[in-house]
Structures are given as structure tokens and as C-alpha cells.
Amino acid sequence: MDLDQWFLTTRERDNAACRLPAWCAGNDVRPLVDGATYFARLAEEVPELGRGDQLFFTDWRGDADELLTPDGPTVAQLFGDAARRGVVVKGLMWRSHSDELSYSEEENRRLGDEVREAGGEVLLDQRVRRAGSHHQKLVVLRRPGDPDRDVVFVGGIDLCHSRRDDARHLGDPQPVPMAKVYGEHPPWHDAQLEVRGPAVGMFDAVFRERWNDPRPLDLHSPIARIRDALDRADTVAEPLPEQGPDPEPAGEMSVQALRTYPSTRPGYPFAPKGERSVARGYAKALRRARRLVYLQDQYMWSPHIARLLAAALERSRDLHVVVVVPRHPDVDGRLALPPNQVGRLEALEVCRRAAADRVHVFDLESHCGTPVYVHAKVAVMDDVWAAVGSANLNRRSWSHDSELTAAVLDERPDGREPADPGGLGDGARRFARDLRLELMRHHLDRGPGDDADLVSPEGAVAVMESAARALDAWHDGGRAGPRPPGQLRPHRPEHLPLHTKLWAAPVYRLVYDPDGRPWRDRRRNRW
User: In degrees rounded to 5, what are phi and psi of residue 389?
Assistant: First the structure.
């Protein structure tokens, strides 16, 4: 398999200042489905770090008191104890906005304060486009004396409340308030990757680029800078230890780091005109997809991205697109809810106009009947190219906020039929197929290995559609008899009247899904 048929080349990344390798071969990558799985791995790995080892992290939201396992430790205890042992602990948290606006400035500041008191250093980073955020979720653990034990965790899971859920989807005992339909403890589905091998050095470099950015931490708010001065906040990044050599090969998977950085003034030193390799990476993979595109996404609400899916459906009459989304937005209210709904309505209409019979959209519910909030950002194309990260399928994630996604190509073929779903000679690959099947089993209440009827694209679509219809019929029949297995329901977006669309659509485009591309690229509709 020619990796550059799926991965972006250096030229296609279109960022001359990028110093990352095009991709790294020789890695072992393990999916971690749901926050409880990921948090348990952190709680196992971090205590193994000792004096002189390194712990770097970036996050959108962090809660100091979030328990990583039922018996602890909390995030602050885990990272703080590491700093007290002499581990070099450095973090970049988005500064965020006031809690009164349903954001997390105080929580992020508190986590930073507690880690700092233990001897680490956490900066509140607001080097973003106006109304933008740092949305990357990355933890890098390095051992200069034993680099073969280095590991990176990258994906969509924040170190905060509401994320510690598992396959039962009973929710995190420490919840974040959400729309009432999700209940007191909102069920939460998410995904992260555990990466070992040379790619650890690549993600280490991603952190270091942001840490070493010489611009002020807050580009836009003099008030924030005054508050930092009054609070004696840390606003100057101390030098990092020299980056060590990459670990030796640990597996047979190649990993590419895809990123979003917006066009800002002044620009990022490592992306002066921004970077949109997430968008370009997805677009390239979609151009090669022929049989099955499997997506899990928090939003899937941008018609601009939906046009790429529609074009893929039109190129291949055998292609099916399967999407798993939340049933409802995470907010409710007469003013907040419609802008969250209108974008997805437009996106699904674009896809269904291209091929209504080959677009399959589902949402999830727990066995208690509570909708599951899908926060995962996962893609699998033809069981070859797979991606897990922080970037959603919307214009904001592809151009306006900072994002980080790991794309994976496995050198190991998967011999189960169809052995070459796309028919282009790439062959199905073990990591991509196993990831898709694990997620499908997860949503169908199946155990490991119970997936022979899910391997082919047509079989997978038929099984998912049948399971969703059966659960719908059980609800329509008054929930009589045993509940059918599975969590899947057909997704039916709520209808919005024309007068609501007239005001919600521009609010959605300007506030919820803004465009961070330079004007020239906007005019050309170029990612």
C-alpha cells in the first residue's frame, strides 16, 4: 500500500513552517473507547514516571477534582504527585470564558493552580482567533532513561467532569450540567488513542511548538492580562528540557498528525497562515473511499463538510455513509437550541440529496432509555484509513479552533472478506477494521469476536439498520416485552419552522460554526 495515497504529503499539508515529519512508521496504536477506559490507563501510566521524566498535556477543559477511577486519584492529584516526585509537568489549558457563560475559566485556572503548587507549570493559553478556542486533547509521557516506554494519549477526551463513563453509559458521577433530556448524569460516548513508537516524538513536537510560541498568552483581552498580573499568574513559559530521540519502532502502524490552526494576526510561528491539515486529510481520504465511510461525531452540522460526503457518494454508487451522532445538542433553550439544530439539518439534507438510500444516521440511548451524548470524533474509510482526534465535522474544527487528530494506516492486512473493500488494491487493514468493529459491537451490545456479519459494508449497514428499527418498534409498542439488544436508534432531526431557520441560520454560521480561513481561501472554497 502506498501511504501517500491516503496520507497527506508535506506539500499537501500546505504549511511551509511545519517541522513535523509527514508521518511516522513503526508504531503500536490502541483505541481506548469511553472515558473510563482512558482515565484508567492514565492512572496506571503516570505513577510509573520518576524524577526527570516528562508529562506534557494540552486540554480544552480540565477539572482538578475529576476522579480518574472510582477510588481516585483526581486529575490534580495524579499530575501534582508526579510533579512532587520530580517529573517535569507542563500543561497548556485554554483560558476559556467565564463560568457564567457556561464555560470553564475558573475550573481550568484551578487545575493549573493546584499543579503549580505541586511544582508543575500550567499556562492558560488564549493565543487563539477571536471567539476561538484551543481544543486539542493530548497527554505526552516521556522517559529519557527508557524511551521505549514513552507513550502518547491523543483524541477527543477532556480531563474533566462528565467524561468518566463506560460501555453501560450510566454517566459520570461528577457531571457537567447539560440539556435536561440527558438527565442528572449524562451518558457520554468518547474515544482516545494510546500511541507508542516513533510517533511519540511527533506529538511531543506538537506540544513544544505551542509551548515555545513567543507571543503573549492572551492576544485580545487587556482585562485578562490585568487579572493575571493581580493574581500573579504564570504568564511566561519556562524552557522545556531538550527533546530526546524518538522511541524505537513498537509496531506496524504509520501515524500522521493532522492539525487545525486558524489564520490569525500575528500568526503562529509554526503556522503563519494557519494550518488545515485536518480538513485536507479528511478530504483526501474521502476522495479515495468507495464502499464504507463510518463516522462518529459530536456535531456533523456543517453543510460545507457535508458537500465532501455528498461528492464521495456521487463518485461511488456502492458507497454507504454511516454516521453516529448525539440525539440532541448539549444545550437547550429557545435561543441556544435552534442554532445548534439548523446546521445539522442542512448537513443531512445535503447528504441525503446525493443518495438518501446510502446515508444511515443513528443516535444512541442507554438501556435506561436516556440518550447518550456522542462526543467521539472517529472516522474509518473502507477499513483502511482511520482517524481519532479532537476535530469535529464542522467548519469551526476545520478552520477556526486549534485541533489535533491522529490518522492511522496499518501495514498489516486483514484477510477477512471483503479483503479489499474499496477495490483499489489497498486491502482492508487490521487497525481500521478492528476499530470499526469494536465500535459497532459496542453499540449493538455484542461481545468480542461477535462480528462476522458486520465485516462487509453491506452486512454492517443491514445489521445496524435492523437493530435500530427493532428498538424503535419496541418503543412504539409501549416497551412491551424484553428490550431488544443494542443502543442504536434512527436519528430523526427535529423540524424547524421557516421563521426559526431565518434567524437561527445566520447565528449558527457566525457564532457556532465560524470560518477561520483566510479570505482568499474562503472565496475559492479551498480548505
Answer: -170, -155
DSSP assignment of 380-415? EETTTEEEEES--SSHIIIIISBEEEEEEEESSB--
Compute the chain's Rg from CA coordinates: 22
| Cα end-to-end span (Å), the chain | 26
Average confidence (pLDDT) over 19-31:
98
DSSP string across 121-155: EEEEEB-S-TT--B---EEEEE-TT-GGG-EEEEE
Q: Is the Cβ–Cβ distance between 250 and 197 less than 8 Å?
A: yes
Q: Give me the numbers of helices (H) and strands (E) for the chain, helices first please.
A: 14, 18
Residues forming a β-bridge with 191: 33
Q: How far is CA 499 from CA 341, 342, 496, 505, in A?
A: 14, 12, 8, 10
Indicate the SS3 state at residue 429. strand
Contact 303, 525 (CB under 8 A): no
Query: Do the Cβ atoms of 180 and 366 come closer than 8 Å?
Result: no
pLDDT band at 23 (very low <50, low <70, confident <90, very high): very high
> 168: which DSSP letter?
T
Q: Taking CA 216 as the corner, what is the angle to CA 268 and CA 239, rounded to the nearest 5 degrees?
A: 85
- State whether the Cα torsion 203-204-205-209 is positive or negative: positive
DSSP strand pairing (488-490 vs 359-365):
antiparallel
Ramachandran assignment for 65, one of left (phi > 0), alpha (psi -120 to 50 degrees), beta (any other): alpha
Q: What is the SS3 assignment for 111?
A: helix
Q: Are 378 and 440 within 8 A, CB to CB?
A: no
Q: How far apart are CA 382 and CA 422, in angstroms?
A: 6
Q: Which of 77, 278, 50 is nearest to 159 (CA)?
A: 77
Burial of 465 (0-12, 13-18, 19+ CB in 10 A): middle
Report which of residues 223 and 43 the model is more confident about: 43
How far is 348 from 490, CA to CA, in rounded Å? 13
Q: Would the pTM count as exceeding 0.85?
A: yes
* Placement of cell 465532501 in the chain: 308
What is the average pLDDT across 276-298?
98
Residues in the chain: 527
The span from the CA of 410 to the CA of 414, in Å, is 10
Mapping DSSP to helix (H, G, I), strand (E, B) and coil, where does residue 292 land?
A: strand
Cβ-contact 261, 353 below 8 angstroms: no
Instruction: Determine the Cα–Cα distance for residues 160 and 267; give it in Å rounded to an integer.
Output: 30
Q: Answer whether 137's CB lies under 8 Å from 158's CB.
A: yes
Which tens digits make up the pLDDT trace of 215-253?
A: 998 866 666 666 666 666 777 899 999 999 999 999 999
Judge whether 83 and 120 are in contact, CB under 8 Å.
Answer: yes
